[in-house]
Amino acid sequence: MSHKLFICETCLDAQGQTPGPDMADAVRAALQVDIEVMLTPCMNLCEEPVSLAFRAPGKMAYLFSGTNPKDVNDITAMARLFVEAEGGVIDDARPAGRLRFCLKGRIPAE
Fold it and tell me: The organism sits in which domain of life (predicted)?
């Protein structure tokens, strides 16, 4: 599987909990596209948990923060858009709902 979704496992929410692992499980259960969901340590966006990133060879990468467990449907919608996007360029992110407002950066493909 070449498409990957990384979810921070160390981000702390307002209650001092780490919602990343539960979010990853919920996203895995809801996914309808071929993308590997992986937990990763800190992505250095601690002030706006939970951070996540989409990556794939030859595709633009996307970095998000400020997500939460309520965003599972938006995350899975973004996963579908990412998998289907040629070169990873997503021209219309409206199907990803609130997640499109959590975008912190896009990293060009190599």
Answer: Bacteria
